[in-house]
Design brief:
260 residues, alpha+beta, 8-stranded antiparallel beta barrel, 8-stranded antiparallel barrel, 3 helices, 17 strands, elongated
Length: 260
């Protein structure tokens, strides 16, 4: 037999074999996709993000398949691929991948991790205790303006206002806070519980006054602080890390949001 003819026959059989393998693979993938489209056998699993339980993804896992339910990936079907650990699913056309390890799942989109979550029902979101809704807090903090008396530092120093009686702090019932010094006026927001207060977004005028020590007070108000009232009715804000106490005396009268 002609040598060239033998080579041609061998090449022909090899090509036929490759075509059969490719055809069977494509057929299998098509069958899997068809099954996933028409009927996915498996229960849906919800995964929630630990950093924010309100962020969830729902996925149906079937034999060699995974399918998204809801979210912006709704309906995307992924096929299981080989992985070193856990179960990995891919949809190359959508460039989406899912890696399932035990009760944890990681989702990739365009090769970027977009979600890591845990299987199960997300814990209830506990709303922080906010302040101006408690009658006791309202009555004590908002019933009067507070005049800065002094700040006692735990190293023995005592800081007193450059102009006694001119530094007035006001907590209004709408959650706003105002501070008037002997130089500038400030305003911001606050939240509080029965024992703590946090002032945020405190901003104000920017007059330059040579004799004022307003920064001794304003710098101390930017961190969350525990507070209590003395028997005499003074308000004491405790500086974090047991650094000292800011003491205010009650000016009296109902707070007027525009009065300080």
């Amino acid at each position: 037999m002609n040598k060239n003819l033998v080579i041609a026959i061998v090449i022909t059989f090899v090509l036929i074999g490759i075509a059969v393998v490719v055809g069977n693979t494509n057929k299998k993938d098509a069958e899997i996709a068809q099954v996933a489209t028409e009927e996915v056998i498996g229960e849906s699993t919800v995964f929630y993000a630990e950093y924010d339980p309100s962020v969830t993804f729902e996925i149906i896992f079937a034999e060699e398949l995974a399918k998204f339910v809801g979210s912006d990936l709704d309906g995307i079907i992924l096929t299981q691929v080989e992985s070193a650990s856990g179960a990995k699913y891919e949809n190359k056309e959508a460039n989406v991948a899912v890696w399932n390890k035990g009760s944890q799942v990681t989702i990739y989109k365009n090769d970027i991790e977009i979600f890591t979550g845990i299987e199960g029902e997300a814990p209830p979101v506990v709303e922080p205790e906010t302040s101006t809704t408690t009658a006791e807090v309202d009555e004590r903090l908002t019933a009067s303006n507070w005049v800065w008396s002094k700040t006692e530092i735990n190293d023995g120093r005592v800081l007193e206002p450059s102009t006694p009686g001119a530094f007035i702090l006001s907590f209004a019932k709408d959650g706003t806070v105002r501070l008037k010094t002997d130089c500038n006026s400030f305003s911001g927001m606050y939240t509080a519980t029965l024992t703590s207060v946090k002032i945020s977004s405190l901003g104000g005028t920017e007059m330059a006054c040579a004799e004022t020590n307003e920064t001794d007070l304003t710098r101390s108000l930017i961190d969350p602080m525990e507070f209590f009232f003395t028997e005499a009715g003074d308000l004491v804000l405790q500086i974090p890390y047991d650094s000292g106490s800011i003491i205010f005396t009650k000016e009296g009268g109902v707070v007027d949001a525009e009065s300080v």
